[in-house]
């Protein structure tokens, strides 16, 4: 289940990155969604 969640978040991140680097950075450093913000630190080291 955790792997599915992480892959889903990763796909979402790729989607945002495709929409523009500035938008992706804004989402990572100032997450609008608290749940994603909590998961962000665990997803970055895995890259």
Word description of this protein:
It comes from Hymenobacter cellulosilyticus. This is Curli assembly protein CsgF. Keywords: Signal. Residues 1-24 form the signal peptide. Helix content is 77%, strand content 0%. The chain has 47 residues and is mainly α. α1 (2-18) packs across α2. It starts with a helix and ends with a helix. The mean pLDDT is 62.
Per-chain topology:
Elements: H1 2-18, H2 21-29, H3 34-43
Supply database-style keywords.
single chain, 47 residues, mainly alpha, signal, Curli assembly protein CsgF
Radius of gyration: 10 Å
Q: How many DSSP H or I helices?
A: 3
What's the rounded overall pLDDT mean?
Answer: 62
Percent strand equals under 5%
Question: What is the number of strand segments?
Answer: 0
Fraction of residues in H or I helices: over 70%
Q: First CA to last CA: what distance?
A: 19 Å
Uncertain runs: none
Shape verdict: rod-shaped
Biggest beta-sheet profile:
none
| Helix-strand sequence | HHH
SS-derived structural category: mainly alpha
